Amino acid sequence: MKHYEAPWSPLLVILSTLLTIVCLGNAFAEFRHGGADSWVGWLLVALVVGCALFTIRGYTVTPDAILVQRLVWNTRLPLAGLQSARVEQMRRRWGIRIGNGGFFSFSGFHYTPGLGFWRVLVTDHRRLVMLRYPNRMVAISPAAPEDFVRDLAIARP
Fold first, then answer.
1. From CA 59, how far away is CA 8, in angstroms rounded?
2. Consecutive 10-residue runs of the chain (157 residues): their mean pLDDT?
3. How many domains does the chain have?
4. Residue 35 is part of which domain span?
5. 144 DSSP 8-state letter
6. Residue 77 backbone phi and psi in degrees, to 5
Protein backbone atom coordinates (compact mmCIF):
# COMPACT_ATOMS: atom_id res chain seq x y z
CA MET A 1 0.00 0.00 0.00
CA LYS A 2 1.19 3.47 -0.81
CA HIS A 3 -0.32 6.64 0.66
CA TYR A 4 -0.43 10.09 -0.94
CA GLU A 5 -1.47 13.25 0.86
CA ALA A 6 -4.22 15.44 -0.56
CA PRO A 7 -2.60 18.89 -0.76
CA TRP A 8 -4.92 21.87 -0.44
CA SER A 9 -4.59 24.53 -3.10
CA PRO A 10 -4.46 28.16 -1.97
CA LEU A 11 -7.94 28.61 -3.47
CA LEU A 12 -9.34 25.77 -1.33
CA VAL A 13 -7.72 27.20 1.82
CA ILE A 14 -9.19 30.66 1.13
CA LEU A 15 -12.67 29.38 0.24
CA SER A 16 -12.85 27.00 3.21
CA THR A 17 -11.66 29.66 5.63
CA LEU A 18 -14.03 32.34 4.34
CA LEU A 19 -17.04 30.03 4.21
CA THR A 20 -16.37 28.76 7.73
CA ILE A 21 -16.02 32.30 9.09
CA VAL A 22 -19.18 33.49 7.33
CA CYS A 23 -21.28 30.48 8.38
CA LEU A 24 -20.11 30.32 11.99
CA GLY A 25 -20.15 34.12 12.36
CA ASN A 26 -23.76 34.24 11.18
CA ALA A 27 -24.65 31.23 13.35
CA PHE A 28 -23.32 32.92 16.49
CA ALA A 29 -25.09 36.15 15.54
CA GLU A 30 -28.32 34.15 15.25
CA PHE A 31 -27.70 32.54 18.65
CA ARG A 32 -27.12 35.96 20.25
CA HIS A 33 -30.22 37.41 18.61
CA GLY A 34 -32.62 34.45 18.74
CA GLY A 35 -31.26 32.32 21.55
CA ALA A 36 -29.91 28.78 21.49
CA ASP A 37 -33.10 27.53 19.81
CA SER A 38 -32.42 29.48 16.60
CA TRP A 39 -32.88 26.93 13.82
CA VAL A 40 -30.98 29.10 11.32
CA GLY A 41 -27.91 29.14 13.57
CA TRP A 42 -28.00 25.37 13.98
CA LEU A 43 -28.49 24.93 10.25
CA LEU A 44 -25.32 26.97 9.58
CA VAL A 45 -23.34 24.96 12.14
CA ALA A 46 -24.64 21.72 10.58
CA LEU A 47 -23.56 22.98 7.15
CA VAL A 48 -19.98 23.53 8.34
CA VAL A 49 -19.83 20.16 10.12
CA GLY A 50 -21.47 18.34 7.21
CA CYS A 51 -19.07 19.79 4.66
CA ALA A 52 -16.09 19.12 6.95
CA LEU A 53 -17.00 15.41 6.97
CA PHE A 54 -16.32 15.35 3.23
CA THR A 55 -12.78 16.69 3.65
CA ILE A 56 -10.38 14.67 1.51
CA ARG A 57 -7.29 13.77 3.55
CA GLY A 58 -5.42 11.59 1.11
CA TYR A 59 -5.38 8.72 -1.36
CA THR A 60 -4.12 5.20 -0.70
CA VAL A 61 -3.36 2.65 -3.40
CA THR A 62 -4.14 -0.89 -2.20
CA PRO A 63 -3.82 -4.10 -4.25
CA ASP A 64 -7.45 -3.86 -5.38
CA ALA A 65 -8.55 -0.22 -4.98
CA ILE A 66 -7.76 3.42 -4.53
CA LEU A 67 -9.09 4.64 -1.21
CA VAL A 68 -10.05 8.29 -1.03
CA GLN A 69 -9.67 9.03 2.67
CA ARG A 70 -12.29 11.27 4.25
CA LEU A 71 -12.49 12.26 7.92
CA VAL A 72 -14.46 9.22 9.07
CA TRP A 73 -14.77 6.95 6.02
CA ASN A 74 -13.10 6.03 2.73
CA THR A 75 -14.51 6.26 -0.76
CA ARG A 76 -13.40 3.16 -2.65
CA LEU A 77 -12.43 3.35 -6.32
CA PRO A 78 -11.81 -0.21 -7.55
CA LEU A 79 -8.78 -1.00 -9.69
CA ALA A 80 -10.84 -3.62 -11.53
CA GLY A 81 -12.00 -2.04 -14.75
CA LEU A 82 -9.61 0.92 -14.53
CA GLN A 83 -8.55 1.57 -18.12
CA SER A 84 -6.09 4.41 -17.62
CA ALA A 85 -4.73 6.94 -15.17
CA ARG A 86 -3.17 10.12 -16.54
CA VAL A 87 -1.88 13.35 -15.10
CA GLU A 88 -3.83 16.15 -16.77
CA GLN A 89 -3.81 19.90 -16.78
CA MET A 90 -7.19 21.31 -15.90
CA ARG A 91 -8.31 23.80 -18.49
CA ARG A 92 -11.20 26.12 -17.74
CA ARG A 93 -14.13 24.79 -19.71
CA TRP A 94 -17.78 25.52 -19.63
CA GLY A 95 -19.59 22.91 -17.61
CA ILE A 96 -22.12 22.12 -14.94
CA ARG A 97 -21.05 21.29 -11.40
CA ILE A 98 -23.10 19.44 -8.82
CA GLY A 99 -21.63 19.12 -5.36
CA ASN A 100 -19.19 20.86 -3.09
CA GLY A 101 -17.34 23.64 -4.87
CA GLY A 102 -14.70 24.57 -2.31
CA PHE A 103 -15.92 24.00 1.23
CA PHE A 104 -13.13 21.64 2.47
CA SER A 105 -12.87 19.96 -0.96
CA PHE A 106 -13.96 20.15 -4.56
CA SER A 107 -16.16 17.09 -4.79
CA GLY A 108 -19.24 15.96 -6.59
CA PHE A 109 -19.96 15.61 -10.28
CA HIS A 110 -19.10 17.74 -13.28
CA TYR A 111 -20.48 17.74 -16.78
CA THR A 112 -18.27 19.11 -19.50
CA PRO A 113 -19.05 18.94 -23.23
CA GLY A 114 -16.68 16.43 -24.80
CA LEU A 115 -15.94 14.66 -21.51
CA GLY A 116 -19.47 14.02 -20.30
CA PHE A 117 -20.15 13.41 -16.60
CA TRP A 118 -17.20 12.80 -14.33
CA ARG A 119 -16.76 12.47 -10.60
CA VAL A 120 -14.53 14.94 -8.77
CA LEU A 121 -12.65 14.15 -5.53
CA VAL A 122 -10.08 16.95 -5.60
CA THR A 123 -8.25 19.34 -3.27
CA ASP A 124 -5.86 20.92 -5.79
CA HIS A 125 -6.80 21.38 -9.46
CA ARG A 126 -3.13 21.79 -10.38
CA ARG A 127 -2.41 18.13 -9.53
CA LEU A 128 -5.16 16.29 -11.38
CA VAL A 129 -5.09 12.60 -12.14
CA MET A 130 -7.94 11.43 -14.37
CA LEU A 131 -8.99 7.83 -13.82
CA ARG A 132 -10.85 6.36 -16.77
CA TYR A 133 -13.22 3.43 -16.38
CA PRO A 134 -15.41 1.92 -19.12
CA ASN A 135 -18.48 3.99 -18.17
CA ARG A 136 -17.11 6.83 -16.04
CA MET A 137 -14.22 9.10 -15.19
CA VAL A 138 -12.98 10.22 -11.79
CA ALA A 139 -10.67 13.16 -11.04
CA ILE A 140 -8.42 13.02 -7.97
CA SER A 141 -5.50 15.20 -6.84
CA PRO A 142 -2.77 13.32 -4.98
CA ALA A 143 0.50 14.97 -4.03
CA ALA A 144 3.14 13.91 -6.58
CA PRO A 145 0.64 12.92 -9.29
CA GLU A 146 3.33 11.50 -11.61
CA ASP A 147 4.53 9.16 -8.84
CA PHE A 148 0.92 8.22 -8.08
CA VAL A 149 0.29 7.19 -11.71
CA ARG A 150 3.57 5.23 -11.80
CA ASP A 151 2.79 3.44 -8.50
CA LEU A 152 -0.74 2.75 -9.68
CA ALA A 153 0.60 1.06 -12.84
CA ILE A 154 2.86 -1.12 -10.68
CA ALA A 155 0.03 -2.04 -8.27
CA ARG A 156 -2.41 -3.05 -11.00
CA PRO A 157 -2.42 -6.72 -12.03
1. 13
2. 94 96 94 84 95 95 95 95 89 75 90 84 94 94 95 72
3. 1
4. 1-157
5. S
6. -115, 110
